[in-house]
Amino acid sequence: MRIFEATVTSVTTLSATLKRIRFALDGFESTGVGDEYIRLFFPHTADRRNISLPTAEGDSWRFNEGQPEAPMRTYTIRDAGQGWIDIDFVIHEGGIAAEWARSAAAGDRLGLNSPTGLYERPEGCTEQVLLCDLTGLPAAARLLETTPDTVRTRLVVEIPDQDSRITLPTGTHIKTDWLIAGNGIAPSLLPEAARTITDGLSQGQRPYMWVAGQSAALRQIRKLLRRELKWSARDYKIIGYWIPNAETWREKYEALDPAIKEDLMKLWDRFDDVEEATDVYEAKLEHLGL
Prior knowledge:
Elongation Factor Tu (Ef-tu), domain 3; alpha/beta; 3 domains; 5-stranded parallel sheet; 7-stranded antiparallel sheet
């Protein structure tokens, strides 16, 4: 892993709720995977050019003793080229990242780490379903751009209002549906959309399903695919991008008994199968009201 310093070079408004920010940086190498993500390290003071960068340590990082810890959030990369990356920020009330992006201007600085991709359509699979809310839209758009025309794609995007629509790639191999729901304004309809799509599959039909959005809603989709339909882990990727009232959630998590938090972390070492570990982890979070 490497840690990079990135400087804002341009800011573009895409919709009422999405803002694209381009950063200049040196030595960054994209994985090329459409949903690759990074950790962003934000300024820890009002000075938007003063960032406290951690030190890379193996596959992780650390802040030195006495060094200010920069607020950190996870984001996907919308596009990348030689010496630059684009990140699309959801603009909403509250939240460190959204407030930073709302006022972003050329010359502002952030830190970030090396990217990791999650999307992994099985070799030979010629059909996929992409389900996401507004937070997953940038990654879904990039997946549309990077998926070959030989793969049929069904995209369902949940947005808060019509003003949040953006222009997406089109073609005879792409079908896109927009839903006005979820995103903190109403219950998510993505679980219902996933069930409708899977109910409509013919016998033996198995598209690759990629899902990104609000964590609790996605738990329902994971239960549908893994428990009810018995899909293999290779047939889907489900990524929780956000939690309602995230700051309150973090406070509640941090207030847990240290032994409980340690047990949650050790789950990932107790299981060889990541999906089995996720089953137990999510069940424990639900039991704890998280």
